[in-house]
Amino acid sequence: MSIVEKSCNINGVETNRIVELATNMSQDETYGKFRFKADNEWVYGSRSQTSIKTFFAGNHEQSERRQPLIVNADQPVFLAGENTAPNAVEHYLNSLVCCINTTVVAHSSVQDIPIEALKVSAEGEMDARGFFGVSEDVNRGYNKIRVNISAKMPVKKEKFKELISYSPVYEMVAKAIPVELNINID
Does 114 score more than 70 pLDDT? Predict the structure, then answer.
């Protein structure tokens, strides 16, 4: 009996669904081709609003969301905004920590690894002189991102790093700029 047959809900994840998706992708390489969309519109000042609704996956357009998901962005008052929402570089960090979390949970669940606790945080360092056009000699975005992970689960650090390696956003970030991982496993 396989792990999935024993329990189809591990760590709150329907593992049968994940195995089904992976099986479909292994049998049809086009099944795994995804295309996500985000439409952003300026609201006022530094505020903008992103609408996310449909996406392409499993060989066709997925329209399971009846209403679009709305994500707001703004700037802190210090940066001439109204501080009504995170700014774009904060959303970038949010994407990274959410994706690492989701990836670790999904892969741990399918492998029947229980998670007692998992916390992922990130801090990005940047020199805003590039954004403000004060210096052409500095990057406009992050120069370094530090990811801190605290987990309570029965795995060694190497196994945990393997779980993280499946994260799409982590891969996108790590290939673009240095990413320092600090992992604490209890």
Answer: yes
